[in-house]
Design brief:
This protein has one domain: YVTN repeat-like/Quinoprotein amine dehydrogenase (Methylamine Dehydrogenase, Chain H). The strands form eight sheets. The protein has a five-stranded antiparallel sheet, with no helix packed on it. The protein has a four-stranded antiparallel sheet with strand order 5-6-7-8, with no helix packed on it. 6% of the residues lie in helices and 41% in strands. It is built from one helix and 31 strands. The protein is mostly beta strands. The radius of gyration is 19 Å and the shape is globular.
Length: 394
């Protein structure tokens, strides 16, 4: 793996763009500091003006079936880039971000408590998985020892370091859990081998899946630590991983709690700095994976793939209304139709037909999104942005 194949930049590549509010931009995959700097400077003339003009509170957007998506801004208490979210229910929600920051609400976001893990202010917490108001995991991303996994059982008062990456080429991208004891984490390939971790004891031990249980890695293959959603779990020990940076984007699939995996190539934009960034599966049958070309925020490519058989096969879905890559996605449990929301640098779109057609929801940057019901979803992004989302029938 070369330096070009990083899942997202380390701390030295963060770029601060002043457009009214503090907006932090980072990219994964093959984008190094020089590439990001060049792209940011070339984009300022067009995309910065667009964002500045659209940095307005998102409005309700009606769909043809008279469903409205209501977006309500919430005060997070921080201005760092927020990159992942894990709602437990419509009241308890955890969020993670840069600068060692994590947040929690126990009242649906009316009040957020933003905190910094002691001694961890240099870490980028790019994934969080929570199970109640007291129990949660945090994953930091970065080369070598910057990739870590922590767990709290007291609401964030104390954190136990469970995994510390010791390989200089290691880079954690995402994690997901079947329950508070059983989980899986995914990172960039190391020395030509895919990198998947498993735990069965609440993170007390994280064990790497042996090469014999994994498909061969493609050159440079890994993931994108964009929203903490490049792996998803389902019932019966099922899980799915969205990959990128390889010659062909793939979905990895397991039916035995991550002990063995098979790969399914998908027909989305692929190659260095491209591929899948996020995957979400509804009721173990209907799946969606999205991505694109990172750093090309005005490009339009095939970046949505759909499954109707539990991830065994995948076909192209419709292109979102927004340009550029998708960073995060979430199905909406309990919706009347297969409803999914996707977010990225260019904003947020939603689909009421399972990813075949899309409508605009907002045109401000988001990194991650998650729903627990049609009336309870949240999206997070730069500048401490937290937006509550609710689908309502007229």
């Amino acid at each position: 793996m070369t330096d070009r194949f990083r899942s997202l930049p380390d701390l030295s590549t963060l770029v601060i763009i002043a457009i009214g509010a503090l907006t932090l931009w980072t990219f994964s995959g093959s984008i190094d500091a020089k590439e990001i700097s060049a792209r940011e400077s070339s984009a300022k003339g067009s995309s910065a003006k667009k964002i500045a003009a659209e940095e307005i509170a998102a409005e309700e957007v009606p769909a043809e079936r008279q469903v409205r998506l209501r977006l309500t801004e919430q005060e997070s208490g921080t201005r760092v880039l927020l990159q992942a979210i894990s709602p437990v229910d419509d009241q308890v929600v955890w969020v993670s971000g840069h600068g060692g920051t994590f947040l929690r609400t126990t009242d649906g976001g009316l009040n957020w408590l933003a905190r910094v893990m002691p001694g961890a202010d240099t870490l980028q917490f790019r994934d969080v998985d929570a199970f109640d108001a007291r129990t949660a995991y945090l994953m930091s991303s970065g080369p070598g020892s910057l990739s870590r996994i922590y767990r709290t059982d007291d609401g964030g008062d104390t954190w136990n370091l469970q995994f510390l990456n010791e390989h200089p080429d290691g880079f954690l991208d995402c994690m997901a859990f079947w329950d508070s004891r059983r989980g899986v984490a995914y990172g960039d390939a190391i020395e030509g081998e895919l990198f998947v971790l498993r735990t069965e004891d609440g993170g007390a031990s994280w064990v790497r899946v042996p090469e014999s249980g994994l498909p061969p890695a493609q050159e440079g293959e890994g993931g994108f630590a964009a929203s903490g959603s490049c792996v998803a779990t389902g019932s019966g020990g099922r899980a799915w991983i969205a990959t990128g940076n390889g010659a062909r984007a793939r979905v990895l699939r397991t039916e035995d709690e991550g002990r063995t995996w098979q790969s399914i190539p998908v027909a989305v934009a692929s190659g260095p700095g491209a591929g899948l960034t996020t995957i979400s599966v509804l009721d173990d049958v209907r799946g969606i994976a999205l991505g694109g070309i990172l750093g090309q925020d005005t490009s339009r490519v095939d970046n949505v793939t759909l499954s109707s058989d539990g991830g065994r096969t995948w076909t192209l879905g419709g292109r979102p209304d927004m340009a550029g890559p998708v960073y995060g996605s979430s199905w909406v449990p309990g919706a009347d139709t297969p409803t999914v929301l996707a977010v990225g640098p260019a904003g947020a779109d939603y689909s009421l037909d399972g990813g075949l057609t899309w409508r605009a929801a907002a045109r401000v940057t988001y990194w991650a999104v998650a729903f627990v019901s049609p009336g309870a979803g949240w999206a997070v992004g730069p500048g401490g942005r937290i937006t509550r989302l609710a689908f309502t029938d007229e």
